[in-house]
Amino acid sequence: MISTHLLRNAAIAFVSAITFVTSTYAAAPMVKTSAPGYYRVMLGDFEVTALSDGTVPLPMDKILVGITPADFDKAIKKYHLNNPIDTSVNAYLINTGSKLVMVDSGAGSFFGPTLGKLVASLKAAGYQPEQVDEIYITHMHGDHIGGLSANGAMVFPNAVVRADKHDADYWLSQSNMDKAPADSKDGFAHAMTAFAPYMTADKFKTFNGDTELVPGIKAVSTYGHTPGHTIYAVESKGQKLILWGDLMHVASVQFDNPSVAVHFDSDNKAAIAERKKAYAKAAKEGYLIGSAHLSFPGLGYLHTEGKGYGWVPVNYVAIP
Q: What is the pTM of this model?
C-alpha cells in the first residue's frame, strides 16, 4: 500500500513540474515586430506586389476637413479605431515581364522610425533596388518620395523616375519655396533632396497629363491633392488595377462621405471632385484598387453602399 506521505510528496512534485514548465514557456520575451510587408497578386500577365513602408500614427481629427468631431468619433469607432490612427504607407511594384516598375517610394527618413521600411519589404519580396527600371510618382509629398534617395545617393541607381510636370514645376521650384509659409518649406526641401541625385544623373523625366508610360501602364491626371497629383492605370489581359495615390486617406470616414477632405490638399474642391469621380467609376466598373493609405496591402474593390461606398479587401491567397 502507498502511504499518504508518498502520495502527498508525489502530488507536490507533479504540481511543481507543471508550474516550472508553464513558467518557463511564459517567460519567453515578446518579439514586438512584424515580418517585412509585401503581398503579391497577379493581374493578367503582370505580377503586382504591394510593398509596405510601415505605418505612422496620424491625428486625423486635426487633418480632416469637413467633418464634425462627433461624426469623426462615430466613424472611427464603427471601425474599432482610435485616434491617432495608425496609417499605412504603401507602394506598388509591377513586373510586366519586360519592365519592373514601382509606383511611389515610401517616406525614407522623412517621417521617423516607423516608416522607411520599403527597401526591406522589396528585398523580402525577392527583388533588389538595382532591378527597378522605372519609378512613377503619384505626387511629391514626402511620404511618397522620401525613399528615392539616401545620404545624397540614388537608392534605385538604375531607375528612371517620372512624375507629372505640374508637380515638378511646383515642388522643385526655389521661388515657390521662398514664397511658402515657414511651416510649408520642408515639403519643398524634401522634394529637392529626394530628386536631386536623379536629376544630376539625368534620370528624372516629367510627363504632362494623361500619358502611356510603358505598355500596360498609363498615367491619369487627378489634380487637386497637389498641382500634379496622378493615379496610374495598370492593365493586362483585360484585368485592370488603378493605383490611387492620395485620392483618399481615411477609409473609415471618406468611403461613407467622399466630401471630407484633408487640410494639406492644394485644392480641396478639386480633390473632392476627383475622389467622387474615382469612387463612382471604380464601383461601376468593378476593377481592382490600390491606395497608398488604405490598411496594407491596400488592395480591394469598391461598391456603392447606401449614400456612400463599401470596401472589400482582396481575398488572401498564399502563393508558393
A: 0.91
The pairing of beta strand 85-95 with beta strand 100-103? antiparallel
Alpha helices by DSSP H, the chain: 4-26, 60-63, 69-78, 118-124, 142-145, 165-171, 174-179, 185-200, 251-254, 268-285
Q: Rounded to a whole number, what is the largest CA-CA distance in the chain?
A: 99
User: Whose grid coordinates read 519592373?
Assistant: 100
Quick: pLDDT tens for 271-305: 999 999 999 999 999 999 999 999 999 999 999 99
Cα distance between residue 274 and residue 263, in whole Å: 16
Tell me the C-alpha distance between 132 and 128, whole Å.
7
Domain ranges of the chain: 37-313
The whole-angstrom separation of Cα 185 and Cα 5 is: 81
The CATH classification of domain 37-313, taken from the options 3.30.70.920, 3.60.15.10, 3.40.309.10, 3.40.50.150 = 3.60.15.10
